[in-house]
Task: inverse folding
């Protein structure tokens, strides 16, 4: 049985909701990631969302806002999604497909321990599993 913990990338980093998007972009660059879970101010065990590099470009820069003034929390909307480290791969795929998300934080004992991205799926799953996932996540129906 392959679990979320088996396929995740380790070293996921939080960004506090009060941090600005220019700081988020710097963290993404420094850690070579495209997304950061956003924590409630001062509470790294409570996720309020995820900010992605695409969010920064589309929702901030392209909208004419200053990334040194907009916070990570400003971009968070909806219910944050995550998966338990012991969840089987099928549950990971179901969660990502049903919510059409490309990155999924992995939690163990209420602590962030990693992130699952498209690259992780491609490295660890069969071609059929990846193709099925991509079809559901990227389809526009």
Result:
């Amino acid at each position: 049985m392959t679990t979320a913990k088996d396929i995740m990338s380790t070293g996921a980093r939080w960004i506090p909701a009060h941090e600005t998007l220019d700081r988020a972009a710097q963290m993404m660059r420094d850690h070579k990631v495209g997304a950061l879970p956003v924590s409630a101010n001062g509470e790294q065990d409570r996720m309020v969302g995820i900010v992605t590099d695409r969010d920064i470009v589309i929702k901030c820069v392209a909208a004419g806002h200053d990334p040194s003034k907009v916070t990570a929390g400003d971009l968070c909307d909806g219910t944050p999604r995550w998966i338990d480290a012991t969840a089987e791969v099928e549950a990971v795929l179901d969660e990502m497909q049903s919510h059409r998300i490309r990155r999924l934080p992995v939690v163990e004992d209420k602590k962030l321990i990693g992130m699952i991205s498209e690259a992780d799926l491609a490295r660890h799953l069969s071609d059929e599993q990846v193709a099925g996932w991509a079809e559901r996540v990227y389809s526009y129906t």
In short: The longest strand covers residues 43-52. Strands lie at 9-10, 15-16, 35-40, 43-52, 83-84, 103-108, 111-117.
